[in-house]
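testing teh design pipeline on a random one, pls ignore if ur not involved
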């Protein structure tokens, strides 16, 4: 902790997973923190999420694991099927992972941020920031800070106001995501030999590319995601083309019927890579810095892990040294996320997860990283 009387202050743009995680971590290190969320109501619109141990360790460091466990689950297996025959059942006994809904994770983080004294302003639309530490809103209001966190998503106004250059690559596939009731008894009645608590990745590459990712999120809610190429108008349609999806997977009819009732949105896979993640007193984390394809389910995980480490790195510095501490943070922490983006993009481009047994070897590098015991503390990186 700094011995100066000035309490360090951070302004954060975006109250998603990255912004809330950075806010909690900073507040716990004695900072005053104000988060700006452009939405009028603080909530998460997304469907489901898988968290692996890299992000779970951060939640554990915040003392949130009991709360997380109560609203989440670990499916017995990650099952991969090709044309409905099982390719692999991965138990991953050495990896800590949980599935849950995004609204649930968001509420756990938002409540924790409030408990830590973080000020959350909704309906507060950030327009940009300067590298000297001024954040400004669309209405012209300015806020001064020792540290600014741009956690404002793939279209980040903080990033773009600073003129940070990026490269964006799109992949040919994309996905629509839904939260629906589990309907476990009905599914069981249709296909009794299946363990409907498993996460099941139903791939079909022939006669056309259609994939259903079935992820139980808790006792009552199922996260179901439907993947198709963006140039397939029926596969990518939302509300979903119920007859098409039921014709491929009739055993999923009870939950597909539910997904068809939801408005939903189709998202094309893309990867955004930045020239730099920091500028002066500003650091970017989450989709503003490293949006990735979801194949390895690490977009949220990397957001949470990088939000945590940037907060730690800034807290270990004195106020004058923050810009240099951010540069050093990026040097040490970024490569693992770069590699995760590369691997996720490769899987998205090749559809390689269809062949099963994917969660082994180098692919698990991100999962196995412990951000609470960062490489920053090692002598050799
Ligand atoms: C857990 C997960 N895995 C893989 C994908 C994927 O699209 O490859 C998605 C979609 O968001 C997931 O949510």
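output:
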């Amino acid at each position: 902790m700094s011995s100066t009387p000035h309490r360090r202050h951070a302004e954060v743009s975006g109250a998603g997973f990255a912004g809330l995680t950075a806010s909690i971590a900073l507040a716990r290190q004695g900072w005053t923190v104000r988060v700006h969320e452009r939405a009028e109501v603080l909530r998460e619109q997304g469907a489901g999420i898988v968290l692996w141990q890299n992000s779970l360790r951060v939640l554990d460091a915040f003392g949130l694991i009991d709360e997380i466990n109560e609203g989440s689950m670990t499916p017995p297996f990650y099952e991969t099927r090709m044309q409905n025959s099982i390719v692999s059942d991965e138990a991953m006994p050495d990896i800590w992972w949980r599935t849950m809904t995004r609204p649930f994770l968001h509420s756990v983080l938002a409540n924790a941020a409030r408990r830590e004294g973080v000020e959350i302003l909704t309906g507060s639309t950030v327009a940009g920031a300067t590298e000297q530490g001024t954040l400004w809103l669309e209405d012209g209001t300015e806020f001064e800070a020792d540290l600014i966190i741009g956690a404002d998503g793939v279209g980040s106004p903080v990033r773009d106001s600073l003129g940070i250059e990026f490269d964006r690559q799109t992949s040919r596939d994309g996905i629509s995501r839904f939260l629906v009731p589990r309907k476990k008894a009905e599914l069981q009645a249709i296909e009794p030999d299946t363990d409907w608590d498993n996460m099941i990745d139903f791939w079909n590459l022939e006669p056309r590319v259609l994939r259903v990712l079935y992820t139980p999120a808790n006792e009552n809610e199922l996260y179901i995601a439907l993947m198709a190429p963006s140039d397939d108008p029926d596969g990518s349609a939302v509300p979903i083309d119920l007859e098409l999806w039921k014709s491929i997977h009739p055993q999923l009819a009870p939950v597909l019927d539910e997904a068809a009732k939801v408005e939903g949105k189709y998202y094309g896979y893309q990867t955004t890579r930045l020239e730099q993640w920091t500028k002066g007193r500003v650091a970017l984390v989450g989709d503003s810095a490293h949006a990735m394809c979801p194949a390895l389910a690490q977009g949220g995980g990397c957001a949470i892990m990088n939000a945590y480490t940037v907060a730690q790195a800034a807290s270990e510095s004195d106020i004058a040294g923050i810009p240099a501490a951010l540069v050093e943070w990026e040097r040490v922490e970024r490569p693992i996320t770069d590699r995760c983006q590369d691997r996720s993009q490769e899987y998205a481009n090749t559809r390689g997860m269809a062949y099963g047994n994917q969660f082994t070897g180098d692919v698990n590098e991100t999962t196995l990283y412990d951000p609470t015991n960062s490489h920053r503390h090692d002598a050799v990186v």
